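job 3f2a | input accepted
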Amino acid sequence: MLDLGCGEGRHVHGLYMLGGLDIYGVDLDEPSLKKAEEGLVWLPKADTNTETQTTFETGDATALRFEDDTFDAIICSEVLEHLPDYDAAIREMRRVLKPSGKLCITVPHAWPERICWQLAPPPNGYAFQPGGHIRIFDEVDLKASVERRGFKMFKRHHAHGIHSPLWWLKCTFWERQDDHPMVKAYHDFLVWDLMKRPWITRALDTVTSPFMGKSLVMYFQESET
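job 3f2a | predicted structure (225 res):
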């Protein structure tokens, strides 16, 4: 497994707990990689008889060091919206993925993202931070960009419906996003939901995700044509 643009390791940590997988987390940001590696210490590992390894390393999504046909599956979550040449990253993922492999890409859902851009405008707003989002993806265009590289989408959905309001609040109170009481209160609510996962918030997220989910999630495999 490759988690390309792994950040602080959320997906790597989930895969690690499943067990039975060799996992690579790749990112350009060294402090995030350090946090991701340190986080493994606190996680339970599945009891399997398979000897595996989890590796974190710095790397450029547009110029990966791995050989062709290395990975069975790749996750690229909330990364492409940051890259000036996102097509180069798609090309690299195609190169290092085995012909039978699966690819999961997530990007910000277009209309919730547009609200963020409007609420925190230039020159210092949401979309104008160093390393920040430089584009809003149209779903049809992104699907076409990936499929031009020899993939075929077989599933898509939206996720994190109850997360969009947090970003709208952060953008509304952009200059105080770290200490504004409304932002802090909603952030604490999401942390509580993550840890406790009560049925009522899980149901609310399921209902809201199709139309206001923060993320668009797309799954691809090798095209048969």
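job 3f2a | The chain has one domain: 60-222.
job 3f2a | closed
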